[in-house]
Write the structure tokens for this entry.
Amino acid sequence: MDIELQIAEENEREKWNILVKNSSHGTIFHTWEWLKIVEKHVNMRLYPIIGMRGSNIIGIYPLFLHRNFILRAVFSPPPWVAVPYLGPVILEYEKLKQDKRESVFIAFQRKVDEFIREEMKAHYSLIKTAPGILDARPLKWNGYIVEPIYNYVIDLRKGADSVFKNFKKKLRQNIKRAKRRGISVEEGSKEELEWIYEAIVTRYEEQNRKISLSKGYLIDLFNTFHPQNMKIFVAKYNGELISGAIKICYKNKLLSWIGHAKTELRGIPNDLLQWEIIKWAVMHSLEYYELIGANTERLCRYKSKYNPNLSICFSAKKYLSAAAKLGEIAYFKLLKPLSAKNKQKE
């Protein structure tokens, strides 16, 4: 299959976003605005690739190039920016017959890999696909090492009562106990977003860790996507903020993104916070609530109490030079501080 690649320009932003919106697996992280904000806050260059077969667009593929004295590395998405997945968007993917779906993905991936190798001159690439692409073989057949990534998804289509009845009994009791204690949940704005950020920073410091996200990054996203696509929810007790979360709305899904830091009242406020957010999502006709991160056993013990379904994505990495494999660990140790350096400049 003969596929040509183009780099989208700023004046093609609307076309790009329409392609994302019309694809079954296009996410808010693929939108032009989100990609450009990421580019602003990381030491990388965005390559918004459009795949063409003749005059027809077959897909898009956002890539980020980072360079240092160890490696030239390509990411989709970049690390440390709280983007759980990105990768290719293939148009009409769900409607294509299997043979066509495979041939398009294989040819598109092969052409993109050729661009990564010859034009970007990268030594290493790391791709994390979005939910909805269930076939990682085209990546494997193009030389990638592929591993599954799991997330949880709660189906909201049967209504809030059905969702609540499916919760673990102890979780339902915690929610009722939180209400009796007078904990309330409400929507917030930029002030509450900043409070959530500072609460996360404090939590990380208690664990001798440093947060890689900058407040400026979150505020830029807030200014662009709130209130339509970004929602802030907070829990209060005796009028004081005790927990909060930043959620992402896109298409028919609400995504649990950042927040839910532990409080002195342990898990009870967060249980109520999650439940009130789920009720809000049902009320606003959203069909799915995605809980990011189901690969870590410790975290799954909490999230599985909601009795969600599993969703699968794929992480795929490729070494394009002999030195890339040897330099990978050292490279990532150097890469994370770069995020902190960018944070200090804002």
Observations:
- The radius of gyration is 21 Å.
